[in-house]
Amino acid sequence: MSDVSINQIDAMPGDAGFGDYFALLKPRVMSLVVFTALVGMAAAPVAVHPMIGFAAILFIAVGAGASGALNMWWDADIDRLMRRTARRPVPAGKVSADEALAIGLTLSVMSVVMLWLAAGVVPAALLAFTIFFYAVVYSMWLKRSTPQNIVIGGAAGAFPPMIGWAVATGGISVESILMFALIFAWTPPHFWALALFMNADYENAGVPMLTVTHGRRVTRRHILAYTVVLVPVALALLLTSIAGPTYLVVSVVMNALFLYGAITIWRRDEAAAEADRYKAEKSFFKLSLAYLFLHFGAILVDVGLRAWGIWA
Amino acid sequence: MGDLGMSFREPHDLHKRRFGLNLGLGLVLGFLVAVVFGLTVAKVSVGGFQTGPAAPQTQSGGGN
Q1: Which of A77, A79, A227, B14 has the fewest C-beta atoms under 10 angstroms from its C-beta?
Q2: Given an 8 Å threshold on Cβ–Cβ distance, is A9 in contact with B42?
């Protein structure tokens, strides 16, 4: 082989680096999945062997990543049209859609089988259902057909703490259902706040977000309504054994702030929002991230307090 | 050695990327082997290989 032929080889479309394949798994979503699944597992009344717990969390994360890859395979056409998603590996042309599909399917099967071997049939079945729900029910069906897409589709993101709980206990209980409900009720205000200031993206791609189909006024009303639903759901965890003094303080403060933020958004009109470039909506979106992180973080702290005997 | 018609210049960007991909994939597979090995040891040490629910640390015996 001559040096000429070596240097004639050029980067082909779709010739991606390791980081591009990793990005296919939506690492930021994976980090939220890892955190909430870990909290679900730690809060359970049954201790898990550290290695089994580690492996279980890893395979839950891989399953979440697999559903992310399947989502990118299916949504490549609309991701290309949205500023927020145009740099994803498939629309950017770094990874081909077929590769994304193959990786998504392979990792889905692998993660479910391995979780089954590591922790049992219930968490594995829940993980399989989560992948199916996100890839098929949400991505393929709801996302392009109804403005309620993220209301129902939010269930996919709500399963991880329930799976973590099932890893430890082998079942489902009121505590894990309430952790599921917390993320499920939190998802609509979180995504609709994003849609308020990223509406052009969804409009360009023809995704029927509530802001596109019913306008921002209706969306603001919906954010408030779902926040009102979210507050008692979050506080209901206080009636269970997993929430302690930390959760009490965090939940009361965060729900008061979240409700205040939702009322602020509801009272604003478009002129005011345009004038300050959606400042309140952007802060509400950031607050929503802190809201979920601090609620699950508080459960984890209370687990620690119980373990050290500070709180029984 | 004389000129064999082969001159190794600086690696092409393509080769660098492929090396990174191969190295990353190798590390991931190695990590997976380690996890499966660790999982097997943990499963055996808590008393008989069982597919879950995950056996409590203090419990021994079991099975499906």
Answers
A1: A77
A2: no
